[in-house]
Amino acid sequence: MEIGWCPRCNVPVRGKRCNICGSEPHQIKFHDLGDIRPASEYEKKILISRIPFKEVKNYVRNRIVLLSRQPGLDYRKDVFIDGFRFGTLEYVKNGRWRWRFYPSGKGAALMYHLTGHICFDIDSSKHLKGKKLKKEIDGEWDIMSSGNCIGVVIRTEDGVKIKDIYCKPVKHRKRASMKDAVRANIGYLRYMEKKGVKIIERNRATMAAFSGGKDSEVSLYMATLAGVSKAVFVNTGMEFLETERFVYNFADFLDVELIELHPDLDFWDLIKNNGIPTKDHRWCTAALKINTLKKLSGTMVDGMRKYESERRMHASQSKRIGNLKVIYPIFDALALDIWLYIKWKGLPYNPLYDMGYERLGCYMCPSMLNAEFHNLKKTHPELFKKWSRYLKSCGFSNEDILDGLWRWKTPPPKIRELIVDRNRKI
Ligand SMILES: [Zn+2]
Question: For residue 371, which of 6, 91, 248, 421 is within the disulfide window of CB 3.0 to 4.6 Å?
Answer without folding.
Answer: 91
